[in-house]
Amino acid sequence: MHNFAIVGAGPSGIYAADALANKFPTSKMLIFDSISSPYGLVRSGVAPDHEKIKEVSRIFDKVFSKDNIQFVGGVKIGSDIGIEELKPYFSAIVLCHGASLDRKLGIANENLKNVIPATSFVGWYNVNPEYSNFIFPEPKDKNNCSAVIIGQGNVAIDISRILLKSSIKELYNGLSETDISRTALSELRKYSFRKVHLVGRRGPLQAACTDKELKELCKLEGVSVIISEDELKLSEEEQNWLTQAPKGIQKNYEILTEFAQNKSNNDFELHIKFCLSPHSFIGEPELQAVSFSKTNLSGTPERRSAIITNEQEEITADYAFVSVGYKGKSIPGVNFDDSSNTYPNVAGRIENENGLYTSGWIKRGPSGVIGTNKSDSVETVTTIVNDIESGLIKESSKDLKELLEKISNKMFTSSYLDWKKLDAEELRLGATYNKSRVKFETQEKMYDFLKGD
Ligand SMILES: Cc1cc2nc3c(=O)[nH]c(=O)nc-3n(C[C@H](O)[C@H](O)[C@H](O)COP(=O)(O)OP(=O)(O)OC[C@H]3O[C@@H](n4cnc5c(N)ncnc54)[C@H](O)[C@@H]3O)c2cc1C
After folding, report:
1. What are the pocket residues of ligand 1 if the criterion is a CB atom closer than 6 Å to any ligand atom?
2. Using CA positions, which residue lies closest to atom 48 of ligand 1?
3. Which atom of ligand 1 is nearest to the CA of 97?
4. Residue 229: which residues within 8 A CB-CB, separation 6 or more?
5. How far is the CA of 298 from the centre of ligand 1 (A)?
6. What CATH number does domain 4-100+328-413 carry, 2.30.330.10, 2.60.120.620, 3.40.50.300, 3.40.50.720?
7. Which CATH superfamily hosts domain 102-326?
8. How do residues 233-260 score in pLDDT, each as one tens digit?
9. Is the pTM for the entire model greater than 0.90?
10. Where are the alpha helices (DSSP H) in 193-246?
C-alpha cells in the first residue's frame, strides 16, 4: 500500500493531500502540523479584516473530512519526530511547512525595541501561538505616533491598514468584531498612528503588492494617501513598456496615479515613497528615525534593480516595521538551499533525497496567493505519481498504527475532531464577545481545553 505523509497543514499541504487522495483513494494520508489548528497562514497570516479570504478554510474542511486523510496536530517534524523515523512508514513524504522566519535587513540598530519584524506583529494581532509573548513597545506620545513600514508587499499593506484602522476607532469599530487578538486590538487602540510611511527600494512599477490590496487603501475612510507626483514620473522606455506590462502592474500604476492626484486632507496620512533603501535605524534606546539611501534604478523596466547612491533621506518615526519577506528553514537532515531558503527540487522532488517531496512556500519561496499553492501541489503530486509508475519510489511496508502509537506514547497529539472541538469553542467565545471568533492564545491552552482541564 502507498501511504503518504504531509508535513504542514497549511494551503500547500492540504492541496497536496487532496490531490494524493484523488489519485490514491485506498491509500492513507497523514497530515502533521506542529500546532493543533490547521490552515497555516490562512489562520495566522491573512489579515483579520479579510474575513472573506479566510472562508477558503471551508473548502479545506472538505478535504479533512475525507476518510483516508488524517490530521495529526501538535507534532513538530524534525524535533518531536525525525524525518528518518518517518521514512519507513511512507512511500513519499511531502514537506509543506511554509516559511515562517523573518528576513532581516542586516543594518545598524535593527534590534532596537521599536523596530518590529512583520512576522512578530502579524503573529501577535492574529493570535499565532508562537508570538503569544510579544509585547508591543509603548510610544513616546500615544496621541501622535508615526511609523515607517519597510517593504511594499501585501503584508506591508496589511500592517498599514491595521495600524490606521485601529487608530481611527470611531470609523473602524467593526475591526473588533473580527478574529483579531483582543489583547492586540485593545493595546493598539490606545495609540493614534497619524503618519504611516510605506517605503520601497524600487519604483512604482516594481511595487510588490497586488492591485487588489493597493486599491483597498483608496477606500480607507479618514486617511489621506499621499504620493508625490514626481515619484511617479516614468522614462519614455518605462512608458512604452507599461502599455504591454502585466495587467497587475498597469493597475497598480493607475491606482498610484489616482492617489497622487487626490488632495484630500485628513488627520491620518499614509505616505507611499519609492527608491529608498534602508540604511540604518537612528535612536538609542528608542527609535527616532529611519535613515535611507536614495536609489537609482538600473536594468530593463521588467528587471529593474535598485542601485544605492550617496544621497540620504531620514524619515522620523516612533516605530519601524520590517516587512521584506518571510524565509523558510530546513527540517534537520534534509537537503536545503541556504541562499534561496527553499528545498532544491525538480517539479517538487527534492534533489538528492529519496522519497522526499515539497510544495508551497518552502518549495518556491514566499510568493503568490493561496490559490497559487494549489497548482504548485498538483505539480508535486504529478511528480510523485510519475515516480511511482516508473518504480522510483516503493510501497511502504510498515504499519501506520505502529507509528501513531509510537508518537502518542511520546506526546499529546490532536485529531481533526479535536480541532472541531477547539473551533466550536472559539466560535462560542466569539459570540460572547461579539467577535467572529476568539482564538486560543497558546498550544498549551488548546491542550488544556482538549484534556478538559
Ligand atoms: C501576513 C500574510 C498575509 C497573507 N494574506 C494573504 C491574503 O490575504 N490572500 C492570499 O491569497 N494569500 C495571503 N497570504 C499568502 C498565503 O497565506 C500563503 O500563500 C500560504 O499560506 C502558503 O501556504 P504554505 O502551505 O506553503 O505555508 P503555511 O500557510 O505557512 O503553512 C505551513 C504549515 O506548516 C506547519 N509547520 C511548520 N513547521 C512544521 C514542522 N516542523 N512540523 C509540522 N508542521 C510544521 C505550520 O504550523 C503551518 O500550519 C498571506 C501571507 C502572509 C504571511
Report:
1. 7-13, 32-35, 40-42, 45-46, 50, 53, 76-78, 96-98, 122, 154-155, 158, 326, 331, 360-361, 368-370, 373
2. 40
3. 34
4. 260, 261
5. 33
6. 3.40.50.720
7. FAD/NAD(P)-binding domain (3.50.50.60)
8. 999 999 999 999 999 999 999 999 999 9
9. yes
10. 211-218, 236-244
Low-confidence ranges of the chain (pLDDT < 70): 453
Find the 373 Cα to ligand 1 centroid distance in Å.
10
E strand or H helix that includes residue 188: helix 182-188
Distance CA 213, CA 46 (A): 12
Residue 300: CB atoms within 10 A of its CB come to: 9
What's at 5, amino acid-wise?
A: A
179 CA to centre of ligand 1 in angstroms = 17
The rounded Å distance from CA 180 to ligand 1 centre is: 17
d(CA 178, CA 346): 41
Cell for 43?
A: 489562520
Take residue 441 and report the three cell numbers written for it: 492564545
> What's the grid cell of residue 159?
500592517
What the block records as the C-alpha cell of 341 is 531558503
What are the boundaries of each domain within the chain?
A: 4-100+328-413, 102-326
* pLDDT for residue 285: 87
User: Pairing mode, if any, of strands 326-327 and 101-102?
Assistant: antiparallel
Per-residue pLDDT at 453 = 66
pLDDT, residue 257, reads: 95
